[in-house]
Amino acid sequence: MTKSPPTSPAVEAAYQYCETVTGQQAKNFAYGIRLLATPRRRALSALYAFSRRVDDIGDGPLPVPAKEDRLRETRELLARIKADEIAEDATDPVAVALADTARRYPIPLSALDELIDGVLMDVRGRRYETWEELRSYCRCVAGAVGRLSLGVFGTQPGARDADRAPEYADTLGLALQLTNILRDIREDAGHGRSYLPDEELRKFGLTDGAHHHPPREDADFAGLVRFQVRRARELFADGFRLLPMLDRRSGACVAAMAGIYHRLLDRIAADPEAVLRGRVALPTAQKALVAVRGLAGLDARRAALRERP
Predict the structure, then answer these.
(1) pLDDT at 215
(2) Residue 29's pLDDT is what?
(3) Are 240 and 303 in contact (CB under 8 A)?
(4) Mean pLDDT for the chain?
(5) Residue 2 has what pLDDT?
(6) Which domains are seen in the chain, by residue range?
(7) Which one is predicted more confidently, 17 or 27?
(8) From the centroid of its chain, how far is CA 81?
(9) Residue 169 and residue 149: Cα distance in Å, rounded?
(10) Mean pLDDT throughout 122-128?
């Protein structure tokens, strides 16, 4: 982290706003960042609040042209943040906090452009024929967030293979996003969205989509889900290589967030059709336990050892 002057009252208030947004709207994410010291926790809250704004535009009720206009305006705001043109007393607390974060940490702000690109894919109703196409989308909406977060965490001095840290952060983001896609099959279908690759839907006999409950008798929905679970677990195993490169608190944060999604993946694998009946989630007590275990990296290390080929 570079040296920066103390935060002004206006910037403090902007960070408090972002932390409130994060605490209210990102339950899984919030469990992880609670383990960080205040400066990094605030920085990640600023990144989340901006990312949430972009996601909310994509998921909101506006017609497509209006969403495209809002995303264009958000990209223009991001350009002003990149150019360090946001004053500390500006009226947009998310912009103020993110601009301050960018001054303090070497975060790759261009990754937020990738996030906007990914949400535009959602807005325009893009479908994905192959895993490589879906992977590109996941890199935009989740891998980019992993790389941004790494800019806040940094790597430990002398960490082995530290030059590969962005790759591992990106891969861990992919693993989380694919887990989200499996969890939200029913909800996404309600918004007219389908993410799983069409060629894989056809392979498992789901030519009319994966969201019907119960699945057609001639379709192998459980097979499709377990195929995706195996893919996600391989991504987790590679992404967990990031942990030894981080300091203890940063590693605990990542292990907690990833651990929650990893256990969610286990639940989906045990009962694939549960995602068609409702939203699969972990109880609050179990999330807290995962966060505590994240301090030691236990869940992440065990999962990586179990699943790595």
Answers:
(1) 66
(2) 79
(3) yes
(4) 89
(5) 44
(6) 8-107 (1.10.600.10), 127-309 (1.10.600.10)
(7) 17
(8) 22
(9) 8
(10) 94
> Both tokens of residue 276?
């068609």
Contacts within 8 Å (CB) and 24+ apart, 20-23: 21/45, 21/48, 21/49, 21/52, 21/94, 22/48, 22/49, 22/52
Q: What is the pLDDT of residue 256?
A: 87
- Length of the chain (residues): 309
Q: Which amino acid is at 61?
A: P
Query: What does pTM read for this prediction?
Result: 0.89
- pLDDT classification of 291: cutoffs 50, 70, 90: low
- Interval 131-160: pLDDT, tens: 999 999 999 999 999 999 999 999 999 999
In the chain, the largest separation of any two C-alpha atoms, in whole Å, equals 64
